[in-house]
Input
Amino acid sequence: MVAEEWKATIEQAEIHVRKGTLPLIGWRAEGPRILRLSADEAQGQWYFIGDLHGDHRAWETLFARVCSDPEFRLCFLGDVVDRGPYHVECLAALLQAAMDHPDRILWLLGNHDAAHRRNEDCSEGAPRYVSRVEPAEFVDWLNARTDDQGWSDRILDLLNTICHRLPRAALFSDGLLATHGGLPLADQWANITALEHFEDARVLEDFTWTRAVDAPRRRGWQYAPERRKRSSDFEFGWRDLQEFATVFSELFPVRRVVRGHDHVAGGWARPDAYQQAVPLLTLNGFGFDHLTNSMEQYREYLVLGVYKKDQLPRVEEVSVPQPVGAVCGGYEPSRPPAAHMGIQAGFATAVPMVAGDWVPHMPLWPMLIAAVAAAVSIIAAALAAATLMMAVVAA
Ligand SMILES: [Mn+2]
Output
């Protein structure tokens, strides 16, 4: 995406935002941020894409797959900027998709989407933009832009105005909860006796910020508002989720959860501990290395979730157009490949991507089963032969 393209998209989106007509599902100035999808709104075939984090190639690849379904509805689980190199391209691509496909895309706020703002400290040498997440590559990129005729302000203001009106979570009628982080922690539960109490600022923050772990450092009563300090304090485990589902079984019946936020190997995780209680699926949309954010170790497959009633979304792998390391055609990075990102020298060399050119992924386990079956039959044959020989000898 060249600069002229994202600028045109940003301009178009600014007009929609001014008029309040940006056609994202649930995007509105007033009204609930925790959606309960009606049967009407839940129509079509839903897909889920996790954290994008500036990975424009992942968006192009995954959204091309989603678009191949004429009935698609897309739930993007949040985190469009930071980590990867293409912040504004990802934002523009998502907004363009929303404008091209009105009322089919639901963007749930991620913690990285609403973390950045203009610096109120305007003194000499102070950075123009600051963030509540660390590191914040998007803000670094904005701060590094000089002489940009006000575009940095416009990009950030647009992102913040949009994010201010984004829903935080959506509950499907079969009990599937889609959100960025997780659930309200136990210190908030006593305050929630009606649906509108989910709209409390602190409760909304928990949907966006909490992390799913196997063994949380705090549980239930151990949470208290004054104990909440760092994002690592915002953890929940399978028991917390199960208790939440029990306590709110009437008011807000959650039976399973699809979310992003935690970056995991292979782009998805279905932690065992949760499966017997309230099953949980973590999805990441980006394809770079989840620990180093390195583009050099880009995965062969990206993942998305496909809605299946009364189940966790099915994980579908979408192969990355080859060669890995190439980017989409006519591509101009918004930020020059940086050494610390581990982007190889040839990264910016455009290799055309063939839209819809996916190789169906061959899962490994059928081959494994076949191999084991073959080994077993060889051993069985050898045993039978040995037994026969013994029998002959004995005779
Ligand atoms: Mn993230």
